Amino acid sequence: MKTIVWDVDDVLNDLTRAWLEGAWLPAHPDCPVQFASLVENPPHRLLGITKDEYLASLDAFRVSSAARQLQPVAEVLTWFDRYGGCARHVALSAAPLETVHESAAWVMRHFGRWIRTFAFVPSPRRTPLIPRYETTKGEYLAAWGKADVFIDDSQANVEAARTRGIAALLMPQPWNSSHQTVSETLERLTRLVAADGATSQASGVSGG
Q1: I need a labelling partner for 206 at 20 to 30 A (CA). Which of 47, 70, 73, 102 fits?
Q2: Of 126 and 90, which is predicted with more confidence?
Q3: Which 8-state DSSP code applies to residue 37?
């Protein structure tokens, strides 16, 4: 049985879109930036603000009631319903230490029937120093050594996984080079887990 490692934000959910459309744009009605034009992530340069200003706004959203009410990406949840039992699943986030408890709770609430492990590489903030183990997802995957498939929206993270011999899929977002749809990406994932001969197995349990 293969082990799939899932990024959380912008893979299992639509955090950046929800933050932009639900928090940033209502507070900045003159901002002309739309989600489809976020060709950089982080997008602070496109928004005409500093990176610290962007992170402060995003972190405030992460712990808001709106973020708690985020729904999973529909295609991803459907995939778990059909094929979740065909593999082991791990969530790997890069949320900051101050907000990661909300991310973990969200994952367990919606995907806890399949995802049994939540790990994170803390995104650095201007806060007291914390012990530094691995500082990137690539380093974490290398140290852990058990991932068969990795799914992320970051081109750099996907390429780092591939250099370590891990089959890695790029979840399409405006800021990366994927030309596939979410459904097409998940079809590729299904073919990867099919190598274990379990493509017709369904988990039989709905999440979230």
Answers
A1: 102
A2: 90
A3: G
Please state, in angstroms and rounded to a whole number, the distance separating the CA atoms of residues 178 and 175: 9
**Which two three-digit tokens encode residue 93?**
């986030």
**Token pair of 77 as six digits:** 């949840």
- 3: exposed, middle or buried (C-beta count within 10 Å: 0-12, 13-18, 19+)? middle
Q: Look-up: residue for tokens 């979230």?
A: 208
Q: What is the pLDDT of residues 28-59, one digit of tens each?
A: 999 999 999 999 999 999 999 999 999 999 99
Q: Is the dihedral of CA 54, 59, 60, 66 positive or negative?
A: positive
Alpha carbons 187 and 169: distance in angstroms, whole number = 11
- pTM score over 0.90: yes
3-class DSSP assignment, residue 61: helix
What SS3 class is residue 90?
strand
Supply φ then ψ for residue 2, to 5 degrees.
Answer: -75, 160
125 and 98 Cβ atoms separated by less than 8 Å:
yes
The widest CA-to-CA distance across the chain, in whole angstroms, is 53
Three-class SS state of 150: strand
- Radius of gyration (Cα) for the chain, nearest Å? 17
